[in-house]
Amino acid sequence: MAIANKSRLKMSLFSLTLLPFYQQAYAQQCSINLNYGVIIDPKHIRIVDKGKTQVQINNTKQLFIGGREVALSKEQQQLLNSFSGGIRQQVPEIVSIAIEGVDIGLKAVNEVVAALTGENSASQQKVQAKFDELKWRIRARFNQSANNYYIAPQDLNDFDEMLTGEFEQEIEAMISTSIGSILEAVGQSILVEDNSNEYGGETRITTYDKRLTNISKGLELEVTQRAKALDKKVAVFCQQLTYLDELEAQLHQAIPALKDFNLIETSN
Question: What's the domain count of the chain?
Answer without folding.
Answer: 1
